[in-house]
Design brief:
The protein is mainly alpha-helical. It is built from 8 helices and 3 strands.
Length: 149
């Protein structure tokens, strides 16, 4: 599965600045995929194949793949877990989706993230989009829908 997600990064001749930028962007994407590869089997259960890379990138940008990550916000709320669910969002979703586990449970948080992305929007991670979004030509379906909204 990892091989199917890794991009082939090549420089073609003649080399132009655009091609060099594309090459390094491709290398950066691959480094994130390799760093986050332990989550590919789990994410494959909850995301469409073309959306797995974006899920890996979001969780890399949000928590660096640490399911125990905690970040305090200016309003004294906390973002917790692999997907960095905020207190407000998690409290809203718990009764709605009958969630019994906490945000640190990677399968639960991944299932909830998938539900949110496919049934609501990717808005919940839009503040970190500067980190995880990729070139418009390679946007996944849920990225493109959010971009066009």
């Amino acid at each position: 599965m990892l091989e199917a997600i890794i991009l082939t990064c090549v420089l073609s001749s003649p080399i132009s600045l655009d091609k060099v930028d594309e090459y390094f962007s491709c290398k950066d994407r691959n480094e994130i995929i390799i760093y986050m590869q332990e989550y590919i089997p789990l994410f494959s259960e909850y995301f469409k194949p073309n959306d797995i890379e974006t899920a890996l990138r979001i969780t890399y940008c949000e928590s660096r793949g640490n399911p125990n990550a905690v970040n305090k916000n200016k309003d004294n709320s906390y973002d917790k877990g692999l997907w960095q669910f905020n207190d407000h969002t998690w409290n809203w979703l718990k009764p709605k989706l009958n969630i019994q586990q906490d945000r640190y449970d990677i399968e639960t948080s991944t299932a909830v993230a998938s539900w949110l992305i496919y049934n609501d929007t990717i808005n919940h991670w839009w503040p970190s989009a500067f980190c995880w979004k990729i070139n418009l030509k390679t946007y996944t379906s849920f990225e493109l829908e959010r971009f066009l909204d």
